[in-house]
Amino acid sequence: xxxxxxxxxxxxxxxxxxVSRKSSKIGANFPHASINGTYGLADPHWWTAGFxxxxxxxxxxxxxxxxxKEIAEECEVRLDKVITDYYKLDHDMGFMWTLTSRARYTLLxxxxxxxxxxxxxxxxxxxxxxxxxxxxxxxxxYEGNQNEGWAIIDCAMNLPLLxxxxxxxxxPRYKNTAMKHADTILNHFIEADGSVHHIVxxxxxxxxxxxxxxGQGYAPESAWSRGTGxxxxxxxxxxxxxxKEDYLDAAKKxxxxxxTNLPDDYVPYWDFRLPEEVPSYRDxxxxxxxxxxxxxxxxxxxxxxxxxxxxGGENILRSLYDNYGAWENDQEDGLILxxxxxxxENSNIEVPLIYGxxxxxxxxxxxxxxxxxx
Length: 374
Description:
Largest sheet: 3 strands, antiparallel
Structural class: mainly alpha
Number of domains: 1
Distance between the termini: 30 Å
CATH class: Mainly Alpha
Number of helices: 13
Strand order of the largest sheet: 5-6-7
Strand content: 5-15%
CATH architecture: Alpha/alpha barrel
């Protein structure tokens, strides 16, 4: 198809039709990765809990399909028990309640959803380490695990909940906290060439940087592609909310690294720095996330620069649609194939991932003239 609008509209209709067919099967649950065609369901506290209801809200905004709305609302209610379970909450609160409560409040004006989102913003702000100026990542994975000094690049995408909370309450504390963390990203996560570290460990008492940790990337000094996508989109959003040029400049630097290292079909490998002996699986989710970030960048730079970012985002999304979509396959719950969840742990390799599906749908929605939910 030659016209950009035509393929976007075709893709959008394919998404609506497939989600309509699959929504009754998935229901008000929390899919994570599709194994042998079926989305496995995670517990409500798992970090991906917001992406299925978020996808439904994106589609509801366009279609006004009441079944999408009802499922998304039920998912939000199911998350209430997580809010009061201190042990299950971590830095990904922003993902979870931005795409559920904040989305519902924005679209429908529901006061109860606003209350939930503001409460969670306070809980997220409570994870801020004032010595190191970072939001702590996970909780201990096992008894004796000491990861209280860990910060991760993924958290860049959780900051919009704090920026939004400042706008809603006229209280700058949330914004200030988010900017402190964003400044730490600039100072410690991004290398001169635009590559990005997944995990940085700080001394939790002094705030001193101790080491880089490979995490879901191949190695501490490699370049995990999904983390690169988180950085592009997260920093572009930080610029949108603050107007601080340093965030825009960093997002552009990371974007150029990402675009320069893409293969011919525009869908990245799971890490940009892999030895020849390591399997170079694609990560379609990294492509979808980065595409949304590139489109956000295109909206925030002069028109003379915008084309490179918009074209990059469109190329990725078009390739995902044409080459990685599962539109006619009713034996497959996912929308987009070939995601790589966590290669070092041999977990969810070459499968659809709910966050890849979400950001693909958000990217299409942006191309249709809408904003994403962040």
